[in-house]
Amino acid sequence: MSLPPRREFLRLLAAQLGGKLPPVRAVTRGPKFHWFGYYDKFQFDPTDRYALGMQVDFEHRAPRADDVIRIGMVDLQNRDRWIELGESRAWSWQQSCMLQWLPGSKSEIIWNDRQEGQFVAHILDVKSGKRRTLPSSIANVSPDGQWALTTDFARITHTRPGYGYEGVPDPNREVGAPENSGVWRVDLKTGKRRLLVSLADMDRIPYQREAAHEAMHWTYVLISSPDGKRFAFIHRWRSKGQRGFSTRLFTANPDGKEIFEIDPSGYTSHFIWRDPRHILAWTRRESHGDRFYLLEDRTGKAEVVGPDVMAVNGHCTYLPGGRWILNDTYPDKERLQHPYLYDPSVNLKRPLGHFLSPPEYTGEWRCDTHPRTSRNGRMVMIDSPHGGYGRQMYLIDISGIIG
Q1: Tens digits of residue pLDDT in 27-55
Q2: Over residues 308-316, mean pLDDT
Q3: Does the structure show a pLDDT above 60 at 238?
Q4: Phi/psi at 34 (nearest 5 deg)?
Q5: Is the backbone peptide bond immediately before 46 cis, with ω within 30 degrees of 0?
Q6: How far apart are CA 73 and CA 82, in angstroms?
Q7: Phi/psi-derived region of residue 14, left when phi > 0, alpha when psi is between -120 and 50, beta in every other case
Q8: CA angle 352-354-355, nearest 5°?
Q9: Any idea what DSSP says for residue 324?
Q10: Cβ distance 195 to 180 under 8 Å?
Q11: Cα 102–107–113 angle (5° rounding)?
Q12: Based on C-alpha coordinates, what's the Rg of the chain?
C-alpha cells in the first residue's frame, strides 16, 4: 500500500495531533475488511451505542454470486466489540446490502439477501433474535418504517456495475425500457409489493436534451422525503453508441402519482432531502455550472449552495436539525479524500480529516468515505482504507465543532 509524500503525511499528522482536526478512531480491524456503504441510511441505533457494518475477506474485485458477507454491529461502548448478526448473498461495494436500522424501531434492522433464486429482505430484532423474511429486496425505508421502495438489482448489475446484485438473471436484459421493471413499493408487514413507476413510463416522459432512442434504462438511488409524503429517484439511460449515461431526477407520491421532473439537466449525481420540499443535489445549471444546488419540489427552482467551498461532487447529508451539511470528496491528485462539515448560514467549512485512498481502490471496488451521522449528530462514521488494513470503519468525534 502506498503512502502520501513524507512532508504531506507529517503535515496531516501534525494537524490531527494539534487539534485542528477532530479525533478519529478505528472501530473495526483486520485481518477481515469492514464497511457500511451508502450515506443515506441509519447506521447508528437510536441510542448511538451500536453501529452496523459488514465484514468480508477479500477486496479489489467485483462480487460473485457465491460471495457471502457477514452482517454485524460494533458496540461503541464496549471496546468496539464486533457482534455478528447474519449474512448476505446480495450486495455491492457501493451500496452494500442496504443494511440499516428500521425507522421507528429501537432494535430492528433490515438488509437484503438472496434465497432460492430470488432477492429477499430480512428483518431482525437484534435483542430478541426474532427474524422474518420478506419475498422482496428493499432499497429505502419510509420514515415510519411501514413500507419501503426497491428497484431492479438484477438489471443494475449490467447497467451500472457496482450497484446491483449477482445471482439472479435479468429477464429483460435485451429490453431497453420494460413495462415490468422500475420502482416498487413494498409493504414491510406483508412483503407484498407493487410497481409504482415502470421503465417504460420513464421512457415515455420526453427528455428536453436528447432523444433516448434504442436506450437501456434503469432506476436507482431511491430516497423518501422526511415526512414520507414524496420520494425521489434517479432515472438513467444509455443510448446505443453513447459513452457514459444521461440522468434525470424525479419525485413522486408514495403511490407513484404526481411524478415531477425536479432536475431535467441530465447530470444529477448525489442528492438528499433537506426538508419535505427541498432536495440538495449535485447537478448542472448554466448560471454556475456543476455545483450543489437546492432544488424545490414541484417547481424545480434551483439555488446554488456553497459555490466556493462545496465546488466538487460528494456524498451529502444533513446533520439532525438541518444546520450543518455533511459531505466528502473523491480522491484528489494525491489520492486524499476529505470529509467535511459546511454551515450554509455563515459559509463556514470545517474539515474532518484527510484520508488516503491507495490507487488500487478504484472503479467498481473503490472505497468512498460515505460519511454517516449518528442520531444525535455528534459523531460521524466513514469507510476508509487509509490505516493500512484495507477498508475499515472509522469514528470521528465532531462534538467540538457543532457544540
Answers
A1: 999 999 999 999 999 999 999 999 999 99
A2: 95
A3: yes
A4: -135, 145
A5: no
A6: 6
A7: alpha
A8: 115
A9: P
A10: yes
A11: 55
A12: 20
